[in-house]
Specification:
Blueprint: E1 2-4, E2 7-9, H1 11-29, H2 36-43, H3 47-53, H4 57-80, H5 86-103, H6 105-114, H7 120-146, H8 156-168, H9 170-173, H10 182-197
Antiparallel strand pairs: 1-2
Helix pairs in contact: 1-2, 1-6, 4-5, 4-7, 5-7, 5-10, 7-8
InterPro entries: Homeodomain-like_sf, HTH-type_TetR-like_transc_reg, HTH_TetR, KstR2_TetR_C, Tet_transcr_reg_TetR-rel_C_sf
DNA-binding region: 35-54
Protein name: TetR/AcrR family transcriptional regulator
Length: 206
């Protein structure tokens, strides 16, 4: 238990408060401009509670993203390991990815804007977990190429990195007040991506 203003806060709840406060502050005023003191005050917990869960502001930022990335990876693993043709599973995977991004838009946007500030062991941990997601995605693309549902003239590594790199950059140009919702944007990007990787039927002779 931790105390704040005379009230006792369960440790698990304190962690949730810290994450929620940090996400809101990072999103509103930026990671660099946000201080640990501001996070503690917004979360209404003690500084000790903050450092019980996170050794630094950098660890807090990476922890928020790594938890979401772990969710994305588990969901992709379940879809990729399911039944059905590779193109159907890849469609389900990228559609689910956009759904997850829509559900957690604020913390994922915070990470995309701030990830260049993370270095050392925290950056290495994130890279390792992202490689796992990329390998699962690439394996699914390669499976589709082997079964003939995806074009084989473009390497699976190129397909994978082009798509996932484009996803990371969405925060730079997407505007919630624009003509599309995140879900609608996802539907269009999924259609564009899958049309680009599917095998083009050979034209019948005249």
């Amino acid at each position: 238990m931790t105390e704040r203003g005379g009230a006792r806060v369960p440790r698990g709840e304190a962690r949730d408060r810290i994450v929620a406060a940090a996400t809101e502050l990072f999103g509103r005023q930026g990671y660099e401009a946000t201080t640990t003191r501001q996070i503690v005050e917004a979360a209404q917990v003690t500084k000790g509670a903050m450092y019980h869960w996170f050794s630094s502001k950098e660890e807090l930022l990476t922890s928020i993203y790594r938890e979401l990335l772990a969710e994305q990876t588990a969901r992709l693993e379940a879809i990729a390991g399911g039944a059905g043709p590779a193109d159907v599973r890849l469609h389900d995977a990228v559609t689910d990815l956009f759904a997850h991004m829509d559900e957690h838009a604020e913390p994922l946007t915070v990470w995309a804007r701030s990830m260049h500030l993370v270095a050392g062991e925290h950056a290495a941990a994130v890279r390792a977990e992202r490689r796992r997601y990329q390998h699962l995605f690439q394996d699914l693309v390669e499976e589709g190429q082997k079964t003939g549902v995806f074009r084989g003239d473009v390497l699976a590594t190129v397909v994978t990195n082009t798509f996932l790199s484009g996803i990371v950059q969405i925060y730079r140009w997407f505007r919630p007040e624009g003509p599309l919702t995140r879900r609608e944007l996802g539907e269009q990007m999924v259609a564009l991506f899958l049309d680009g990787v599917r095998t083009v039927p050979t034209a019948e002779p005249a």
